[in-house]
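FW: tagging you since you asked about this chain on Friday. Here's the raw sequence from the shared folder, copied in full. Didn't touch anything.
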Amino acid sequence: MSKKTKPWGGRFREATNEQVERFTASLHYDRRLFRYDIDGSIAHAKMLAHQDIITQEESGAIVKGLKGILKDIEEGRFTFSDEDEDIHMAVEKALIEKIGEVGGKLHTGRSRNDQVALSVRMYAREEIRQIGVALERLKNTLAGLARAEKSTIVPGYTHLQKAQPVLLGHYFLAYWEMFHRDADRLNDCLHRVNRMPLGAAALAGTSLPIDRSFVARLLRFPQVTANSMDTVSDRDYVAEIIFVLALIMMHMSRLCEDMILWSTDEFRYLEISDAFTTGSSIMPQKKNPDVAELIRGKTGRVYGALTTILTILKGLPMTYNRDLQEDKEPLFDAIDTVKASLDILAGMLEGVTFNRDRMKAEAGLGYSTATDAAEYLVRRGVPFREAHGIIGRLVAYCIGAKRTLSEITLEEYRRFHPAFDEDIFLVISVESSVNARESAGGTAEKNILKKLSEIEEI
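HL: got it, structure written out here
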């Protein structure tokens, strides 16, 4: 392979080793950036003409050539060569072949360092918007489930032990809050992603009279990056995006874990649609929650992407280093994984059916309304710590007698404290328990309806 095939080959006397060619190539994964590379190059060519660095005719020829290449790639007519290191070199080489030497003027005033940074930022901001749309679909699904199950009573757990009854609608709104925070984090991250890096050149800027703000306006960036050295070495935004994606996956994984547990024969709280489950190759009776399990499993994959990017960045000296080529695969994989998981999780949840009678029956077990009995005494002037001890001894008595709180008599209640009256039996019902919790953020149905009204106004 001749050294002349490389745009940087002028000072080299030997051709690049073929093994090095393969080792350093990134075209097989970064070709997905083609649209962003071409859009960025079109804006750059227009700026060069605007600043009289190249002529309008030269700029027009470059822009026309780039648009032709874009169309060829989109329609599957473009042939990528093994000699191309990456998508940026592939496009530039094709441009020169298409329009001649004038194509070589495109790279005026820029480096591959800031060119790559531009493409990744443009790709990232578009993907953030798409993930935001997928998050909204999932949030809407959860809000719909919350409304449909606003009166459904289900056991609430701490330490995976029955704790207190809650409303299933309240449960789904808990996950709505998680994904709403994720959406906020994504939007906040977008502010730092959406800064235009082109013009930083290799690391020090350029002596040519470029206009970075002109390019930023064409590419719909609200501002340009502030420091050329930071610009070409900055991948904080990549790490930040993947961190947010890792949190999204963690929240999905927790939800899936509940769905997996609740669909078991031991719980029998819900059934996942046949369309989102699979069978066994040997056991004909099996119905496996593979979609939920795979989302749970793929969470580790995104965590791995976060560890990868942080490890790549941790020891880099200023400014650009080739290590940064390794930023794209973890970013691409994390984005692809999250988008696929968000989409299929929303579909799975839309087809879940609930065993409401069993949920309600289970919610009343485990002395789950004991706290309601303690708060009953508090309302009658008993200090909470004293009330806590009284109800604890009462529960121990019930366990010994193998009876529930509703099965013992008022006389037995009064053995533990004289403040108990007939209305204690209303207080310790699961219906009374959930709807008594009207404190802000509590599980009461009126709170669910209030939150759903707020969501509809967002």
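FW: The two ends are 60 Å apart (CA to CA).
HL: agreed, and The chain has three domains: 3-108, 113-197+232-360, 368-457.
FW: great, closing this out.
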